[in-house]
Design goal:
Two copies of one chain form a homodimer. In chain A, helix 3 links the parallel strand 3 and strand 4. The longest helix of chain A is centred in the last third of the chain and has 21 residues. The model of chain A has no long low-confidence stretch (mean pLDDT about 95). Chain A has about 400 residues and is an alpha+beta fold. Chain A contains twelve helices and 16 strands. In chain A, strands 1, 2, 3, 4, 5, 6, 14, 15 and 16 form a nine-stranded mixed sheet that branches. In chain A, strands 7, 9, 10, 12 and 13 form a five-stranded antiparallel sheet that branches. Chain A is globular and about 80 Å long. In chain A, about 35% of the residues lie in helices and about 20% in strands. Bound molecules: N-(aminocarbonyl)-beta-alanine (2 copies).
């Protein structure tokens, strides 16, 4: 089994990178804090003798080759190390660091695997600074050209390509340069199911569809004291109506649709001025493509009605759109078997979050292993998983890799 | 009658100060742009031989004394020259510059008024950067201590006192140093009534009550994809519910209550994170104190219910609170008489906006003259008034001053 002490210590070490003065952890993609995290990761990869490669979108690969297996397709493990704003410590990092433990354990045992084993840390999985999310793996899998991706303008007005150059992670390898034999991503669930049901391993068989839009509502600025309600074209009120509409739809979906408005801004943003402009994002998800399309259509229809009734103009821009994904049945079974060998309860489940595995599934057999998130909290500094679950998940990953490598 | 050419030209000149690269006009209180506007105003005051005084809260006074009337209480005209964000050209400036025209006209005619005539430009009337609004006149009238006012922290984190020092407008006169005989404020209506009814002069007999609050809602940040709707504590959704609630109340008030949410921000403000914090302002107004209190109480009750139903915590802070004000009946009559002498239609009306006159009414007989705002648009660069109405309003002011000065 894996070296749990090293894994837990490294999670803490990486988790300290990117803390601000208020002790909030933020390592947005291609930021200075992301660079510091990447630098640390590469030191660790080299300590275990891995060959480190960086591709043009900044994805980092640490590859364990032997002379005998150099021409074989590698088994790829991994996830991401970028974070949201004021993030937890486990999201992404757990999968990357566990990958290193799997390799180190096999190395220590003197195993000579039939194929290379590699660990990837994909660029900009979170999608907070640059949209879409899962961008590094999307580019790697050929779903977005590297040129277009590098031209992405961030929420702070920066260009991803320039920021990658600036932090020294605009690599030279062409995305896709390693064709994986399989991709397995170990991750915290980030939701409440495993924790609630007291199950330590999720065998993730699919992942729900994700639709991100940025909606802009244009009204007319006017005086808050003198403008009769009936004469207002209040962009902020219209935005609030969209937010409550989305919640009503989600409530009516029997727990299937989730909808979130996570960002908003008004212009001119003054206490006594009716907002002339409201801009906000919508994150819509459903495990069923047909249903997700229905939600998108319902929103579009509602925006049309609202534009007419509030006399505002409304436009929307798609920031990300990913259909639901099914994972590789064979690997999902290997996960269940590994759990049962280790006497762990497991459960087949759907991922509510987007993950790099959903992109890698386009180019190789892929699946995911989940471990419980205490109280389902994630994208929050309180994100936590019991050490025993972290260790169990890494050992399941080790067993699946052993199996796939034919050790 | 007044020199309309000079008035219209100066409105344009002052209106060009504070334009940004996008041609948006913003002269927030005690900013660099406000300083530039103040400097220009003082040049104009000195051109007409006025004595310029600045008080400790930065209010500017240009006083026309004669040797004979130096010991009399002055007739004070004026308004403010600070603006909202992306403002129009007339709000405030019209009253200040018309005051200068009234004095200049009397000077040119060789009138020797029985009392000094003075023009004030009060600090921070808009209240966008520092709350409460009408701060300069409030301090002048003794409703807020100058020490407390100077300690006000702005929406940008600055201290008003430090900013006034920085721009060179922390004067030495004690607020209240001139005890006015009367205060008359000429202003654009900023609302649609006069324009709609084709009436050129509003004789403003009262002003509605204003209540400003900042509301902070605390929820729990969580993952937008994995957190079931029923487990969310979504501060942003709760904020949206407050916005639509306020609109429903206003709609039910028979055109009496107006309610505006002009500013908002979410934290962490990321597309895939349920907001943990929402902060927004509420601007509530009603011409009747009793009704305004009912609206405040209804909102407070709603916030309590909402905190329980959405499992969030909600706090609110009063940023400004002014009861409705009645103006001086005698001056209102003089305004009506002046309009009728000039063959202008006039109408008694209520001010929907807050004005410095409502503070000055605490220390001397005060009233306001309104002129039409085309389509009722204000706090917007499209704010406009026909030249003929601007000139008519200034001539009404001239006549009222002549009357009060016993010329
Ligand atoms: N795992 C994760 O938080 N990914 C970010 C993309 C998403 O919002 O689901
Ligand atoms: N006249 C004016 O716009 N004053 C600002 C205070 C208010 O919001 O009413």
């Amino acid at each position: 089994s894996i070296n749990s002490e090293r894994l837990l210590k490294r999670l803490q070490d990486l988790g300290r990178i990117g803390l601000d003065n208020d002790n909030k952890r933020t390592r947005l993609a291609a930021s200075d804090a992301d660079k510091a995290g990447r630098d640390r990761l590469i030191v660790w990869m080299k300590e275990d003798g891995l060959e480190v490669e960086i591709d043009r979108i900044g994805n980092i690969f640490g590859i364990w080759y032997s002379t005998e297996n150099r021409n074989e397709e590698p088994i790829l493990l991994g996830s991401h190390i970028d974070t949201v704003i004021n993030a937890g410590m486990y999201d992404g990092c757990y999968g990357v660091l566990s990958g290193l433990e799997v390799i180190n354990t096999l190395q220590k045992k003197g195993v000579k695997p039939s194929r290379p084993i590699a660990v990837a840390a994909f660029t900009n999985e979170e999608g907070v600074r640059y949209q879409p999310d899962m961008m590094g793996s999307l580019v790697y899998a050929g779903g977005l050209s590297v040129e277009d991706a590098l031209k992405t303008v961030g929420s702070d007005g920066t260009l991803l390509g320039e920021e990658l150059e600036r932090i020294g992670y605009a690599g030279t390898k062409e995305p896709g340069f390693l064709k994986p034999y399989a991709y397995i991503e170990l991750h915290i669930e980030q939701g409440p199911i495993l924790d609630k049901e007291g199950i330590s391993i999720g065998a993730v068989e699919n992942l729900q569809g994700i639709s991100w839009q940025r909606i802009t509502i244009e009204g007319i600025a006017n005086h808050a004291g003198t403008t009769p309600i009936v004469m207002r074209r209040d962009a902020g009120l219209a935005a609030a109506r969209v937010i409550t509409y989305l919640r009503d739809r989600a409530n009516a979906s029997n727990g299937q649709t989730v909808a979130t408005v996570g960002t908003i801004s008004f212009k001119p943003n003054a206490v006594n001025v009716v907002p002339s402009l409201a801009t906000f994002t919508v994150d819509l998800r459903n495990p069923n493509e047909q249903r997700l399309q229905e939600e998108e259509q319902a929103l579009a229809n509602y925006l049309k009605e609202l534009a007419a009734s509030e006399e505002v103009s409304i436009s929307s821009e798609q920031l990300a759109r990913f259909s639901p994904v099914s994972f590789d049945e064979n690997i999902v079974k290997l996960i269940e078997q590994a759990a049962s060998k280790l006497e762990l309860h497991s459960k087949r489940m759907t991922s509510g979050a987007g993950h790099d595995a959903q992109m890698m599934a386009r180019i190789c057999p892929s699946a995911m292993i989940f471990v419980p998130s205490i109280e389902g909290i994630s994208h929050n500094p309180k994100e936590a998983t019991n050490d025993s679950d972290l260790i169990a998940g890494a050992n399941v990953l080790l067993d699946v890799v052993n199996n796939l490598a034919g050790n």
